[in-house]
TrEMBL record:
Biological source species: Rhodococcus jostii
Designated name of the protein: Putative flavoprotein involved in K+ transport
Cross-referenced InterPro entries: Auxin_biosynth/cation_transpt, CHP04046_FMN-dependent, FAD/NAD-bd_sf
Gene3D superfamilies in the cross-refs: FAD/NAD(P)-binding domain
Domain of life: Bacteria
MF terms in GO: flavin adenine dinucleotide binding; monooxygenase activity
Record key words, sorted: Oxidoreductase
Family matches, as PANTHER family: FLAVIN-BINDING MONOOXYGENASE-LIKE PROTEIN (AFU_ORTHOLOGUE AFUA_4G09220), FLAVIN-CONTAINING MONOOXYGENASE
A Pfam family matched in the record: Pyr_redox_3
Amino acid sequence: MTTHHDVVVIGGGQAGLSISWHLTHRGIDHVVLERDSIAHEWRDSRWDNFTLVTPNWQCSLPGYSYSGGDPDGFMTREQTYDFVRGYADTFAAPVREGVTVTSVHQSADGGFDVDTTQGPLHAGQVVVATGGYHTPVIPRFAERLPGSIEQIHSSQYRSAESLPDGEVLVVGNGQSGAQIAEDLMLSGRTVHLVTGGAPRVARFYRGRDCVAWLHDMGTYDVSIADHPGGLAKRENTNHYVTGRDGGRDIDLRAFALQGMNLYGRLLEVVDGTLQFAPTLASSLDAADVVAESIKDAIDAYIERAGIVAPTEARYVPLWRPERETTSLDLASSGITSVVWSIGFRTDYRWLHAGVFDGEGHPCHNRGVTAVPGLFFLGLPWQHTWGSGRFAGVARDAEYLSERIECEATVRQSVSSLA
């Protein structure tokens, strides 16, 4: 027999738990299906020295907030896992762990047919809360690297000790790539970092964490519809910074002075030689421009609001490449491992609904799709920049819970008239 639930939530991370909290408190029948275990991504897909880049005071979910003694600190991997896992226990979230959803179809008689590894379900409505990072991206030319070189994706990296002895190539300098490169360097490894167009942000400015200034300025509350970048912002790389050791800047120029080898964009692998575009200088300059523009905005806010804050000298580049390296012979480089940190692709092949664009991304407005009763939650820039943070997920979940309740009321009214 097929079990029916008014709502089926797919994914047991912070997004799925947040919507479950609202549905529970609204008295709406639902179940949360989790392929692995609650919040497992925080523990299983982060390196040993991982920390959040957002301060602890910003960590809040519906009915639940950080309550430790270090609000301005940054939770470690284990602390973040415990935070999210403990949240589920506060309201006895109806999560079924170890259940993989294999397909979702619109049902002929209304609602959705949900096939799982534990049998079929029928749902009046469905919330897809699996996030936007599904399949690790590794380029095809990785196949041309010598078989003696160990290759992993950033989601598989745990520590310098987990890699073979020797030098390490990290490809990609977004949040994960930049932090992993630092982790390797602090462990005593010689690191080669391939840079791209990732922006950076200062950790602190004028006496406060930049996140605190941006929070007060309402930056995280600007909807994507009102943002100058529009929907294209959803494809942007996050600013690199770290919460490690109480939080600090990640300055690739400083890393170069400490012995890290920096390169421009990786173009190709030819006969065991890596080919790079001469883009390193422009990438470093562009990242600095973004960081300084954020400081400009903070300065303007301080002046506009009449806030008394300490002044601070602006950043001066510590290092510039005299000559860009455009090729690197792997055989003589000493490189024994590569960490690919160039992102993820979405994978919704199991979801059979006409709600995707040509690249497989869901089309939605604040998580609401054109298919009645089908919603997404936990996507980057789902509604605002803050949607990628705990507090933003909480707000998005509240909005969707209202839409779900309205949709259920409409269906009940239609059913009673039938």
